[in-house]
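Inputs:
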Amino acid sequence: MKPFTYSRAASVQEAAQTAASVQGARFIAGGTNLLDLMKLQIETPTHLIDVNHIGLNRIEATDEGGLRIGALVRNTDLAANEVVRRDYAVLSRALLAGASGQLRNKATTAGNLLQRTRCPYFYDTRMPCNKRKPGSGCAAMKGISRGLAIIGTSDACIAQHPSDMAVAMRLLDANVETVTADGTRRSIPIADFHLLPGDTPHVEHRLTPGELIAAVTLPPPIGGTQVYRKVRDRASYAFALVSVAAVFGEDGSARFAFGGIAPKPWRVDAADAAVGSGPKAVADAALAGAQPTAQNAFKQGLTARTLASLFRQKEARA
Amino acid sequence: MDAVELTVNGRDVHLQLDPRTTLLDALREHLHLTGTKKGCDHGQCGACTVIVEGRRINSCLTLAVMHEGENVTTIEGLGSPDNLHPMQRAFVTHDGYQCGYCTPGQICSAVAMLEEIAADIPSHATQDLGEVEFSDAELRERMSGNICRCAAYPNIIAAIRDVAGEGEA
Amino acid sequence: MKFDRPATANPIDRGRVVGIAHDRIEGAAKVTGTAPYAYERHDAAPNAAYGWIVGSAIAKGRIAAMDLTAAEVAPGVLGVVTHQNAGPLGKGNMNTAHLLGGPAVEHYDQAVALVIADTLENARDAARLLRIDYRAEQGRFDLAADRDRAAKPEDGFGGPADTSAGDFDAAFGRAAVQIDQSYTTPDQSHAMMEPHATTAAWNGDRLTLWTSNQMVAWAVGDMARTLKIPKDRIRVVSPYVGGGFGGKLFLRADALLAALGARAVGRPVKVAIARSQIPNNTTHRPATIQRIRIGADKDGVIDAIAHEVWSGDLPGGEPETAAMQTRLLYRGDHRRTAHRLATLDLPEGNAMRAPGEAVGMLALEVAMDELAETCGVDPVELRIRNDVQYDPEVGPKRPFSSRKFVECLRQGAARFGWEQRDSRPGQKRDGRWLVGMGMAAAFRNNLVASSGARVGVDAQGRVTVETDMTDIGTGSYTIIGQTAAEMMGVPLEAVTVRLGDSRFPVSSGSGGQFGGNSSTAGVYAACVALRTKLAERAGFPAEQVIFEDGLLRLGNQSRPLAAVAGPDGLWAEDRIEFGDLTERYAQATFGAHFCEVGVDIDTAEVRIRRMGGAFAAGRILNPKSARSQVIGAMTMGAGAALMEELQVDTRFGFFVNHDMAEYVVPVHADIPEQDVLFVEELDDKSSPMKAKGVGELGICGAGAAIANAIYNATGIRLRDYPLTIDKLIERAEGSALA
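Outputs:
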């Protein structure tokens, strides 16, 4: 961990202003991913702005009938929230499928969105990695890629996004509310928030330097049967090989979003439209254009199978 | 160096720390509270679990300076060899350990985990999000952030059940 | 004491303390966090500086240049140790690669420097400031590709590389039923919870190491050889070991570099190997390729059996002896085993819990399941039919010391409800789960090793045992205490056990499941010596005196133990030396594993529903901790079956998934009910304790039972471990999977 200075912000404005004025500053909230990466010098901030004490930890109804989730709401509290459990069950389920009880007690809503990849070559600083060190190459593509992305990848990077929560947020069409140093607020649809790697895999989201996530808002509840299914190599405390968030409407419509298979939470309109044709058709639509490696090609079949499991579950309930 | 004040096991402590110091290293290296263990230092094993402001966390993935003014309970704060906490006693009775290295983390985690169930916090094993029910499956899922490579798992679950007053499955 | 004849009746047979389930006597220290581990010795070495290891960035080649300048001037840095300033170093007998590399680099993450600073934070940061210029060389990293280059290794720890009896080729060729299959097992990591760690301090030319090591005397010897100093200048202290599983059998880089660092900076230094360094810096269980051929009659009775194993290691390394159990487990007049070793430049392969059998049984017991199915014989019955009461390579002149294999099979099957199994795969369904049952034999050799102890009684009648034996979670403290209590006729509470210090008599150490039986036998020997001394002092004939209830008793006469010991107390030391009983008798431990799994019909996720087994391992000294050893080993077997694999990057030559997020081991949620039955057995040819090893038996066969259960659930026979989702769905067609 490189030396850094530390300050505790007392307000959103102070946090944003400090971030704008101090080169190399980063916000720290839960810290569960940032400190992990700082110890390995994958992240090397020169200043940490502790944003744990600037409010932003409330969950409240929006005027539109949706939900506004403060950036600092802990994963545990979000998953346990009565409204979330009742009206956005897929979000609660996704959160609970991730990490461990201890990590969820620290990890925040904003931090979860900003989690970085678990690609093992990204994690070993002796290895080439375009995401960690632009231009150094990608060791994963012809290396160990079993857990990595199969779609949305580029010639520069096949890293996967590791979040479960973000998959549910994507399904629910959440918006990311931010504030910059000059007080400008903006709302970024989650579909646009995360970026595909392209030639710049080190640029992972639309936040500008110093821009702070203040909240994530959810549109009004969409009802339906909400499920999250995560398939992994052990029963708990592991990242997804494939995960699927789904809402099955009573009218036969459905929405699907996918984790473990792409550099960002993955959602394709055509997949939703294919619900009437069954799980295989949904998977085919979701994965059109996939470019898996030999090691992770199984994720295509596994995606279809995970969907099949969800369809089976839904039919059993009906 | 940053000044940090913490309340650890009910005692106020004042430390001057490099801001890079994790809560785990502050406990182990500065306060010599070595009951909290370092297994991976990256949130991958749970050996460093302590209870901060009533919640279990991985003390390896948080900086000590971030806990200014907060209450920290470590294994040493739960009980001592002459005055064991009921969870500590149950781990002995049920052989809920072998090498002992993950044990303080398992015990701190278990104590706080039962509070989470009591507070109606759901888990991945919760069947109906509307209602958290006590079951072995719930305990196993909720304790999965504490790895025991000696794998005393069923014994740990038996110990927790014992403390929770739930008896045999 | 020489143990060269079968044991007769002795005080252990009373079973007042030994054989009774006891809580661990060090339990309170462990559950309160007061048991001191190696990195926590603020008491013994205050003011220790912090060392951080720098691992090689290449797998093979040379260091062309090192620039330490930036690190040396970094805040808090006290010194940097490299091959350039470490002085002449030897190599331990037990080490294959050097613990401090440079200029030659032998494997990825081989230690090439230690940065020492006043704080952990400064040391870790400065370690990143070393500028090392490597000249990489082409290495060999792919066992499958190098299989044909593998050579016959020298005879090693486990015996000859190859064995044979009868005429395998002819017998196999004429067999009515032939099984001929290949299996693979991957590299695995011990992943013990406590990283390798050492605190080192010099006092003049004398070195003390507070370390985490299974074999105290080996650590002393190899440190002496490496530093080129006399053994008597080195003290090794290892009272608590946070898991080892074979990964801490040897002197490793933490110990050597802590010693070198402490010498360089003139104050105590402590070093822990970072979790992400452990898989590549330390040892691992090597991958294997195994071919098994079985020739049987139509009833499954084996006439011919062959097991060939290929593994790899660094130059000078050893093979994974995965055919060991096949030499002893089943009948057959015509047999062959062979081990071949390829030279690879991956990190050092070495022992991990039940080296040989743990992975050999993963293959053999699936082959037996395949034989059972081919012959239409129940898998339990098949194993009973192929039981043999003598070493089948030698014949009846070398019987087993004790072998309750059939009892384990029968009792284990009854207890598990094996009769409910449908032998046809893919028949049972429970909601989304395909449910199957599988079983496998458990087999692990019973090794014994010379072991010493000294035992004393003080004026209060309190008994103290001192031996350099270690407790790595195995329960040594308690069984040694029980042994002394039984022998001296005092309650367990009246015994103090001191372990893990090279100032104490040299013990067997902890490894190869020999530690429990051997070290208690050493304590037994010391107690016999102490009893003799006490009897003499009391004026009683030693042969007739009874030690019980804190008294020496002879007929109606009795004297308190405390009084006889006198104000200065009385001590005795002895060791157990084993004769040729292990040669005259085949000695092994046996069992039967049973498992029920569910396999998700769509996603192929495998969930263990329950595991159970029956085991015969001689006298069970402490049924409580022995059971924990067995269930823990079963769980490690589950990891081997379902998830554990060090993934090899064959271009760069290293294990890619080198942390505990990516190298997954079982968690609570993976392990439900586990049932253990110990079949009653006393083995009078194993030791005076009539016990055998039990710490590794539970892993041997556990994974195969899971593999066989998966087959029973799905109809998919996988032969390449671990049995992950990707492999199952690839074989979905024609199976019970959707």
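Remarks. Chain B has a mean pLDDT of 97. Residues 103-118 of chain B form the longest helix (16 residues).
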